[in-house]
Amino acid sequence: MKDLLRRHAILKDEVVSALNKQVKIEAQSSNHYLALAAWCHVRGYDNSSEFFYKQSKEERKHQLKIFKYLNDMESEAKTPGVDESEFEFSTLREVFEKALDMEVSVTESIHDLVRVCRKADDIQTEEFLRWFVKEQIEEEYVARQALELFEILGEDKLALAMFEERILEIEYDG
Ligand code: FEO
Question: Which of 27, 104, 121, 167 lies 20 to 30 Å from 129, alpha-carbon distance?
Answer without folding.
Answer: 167
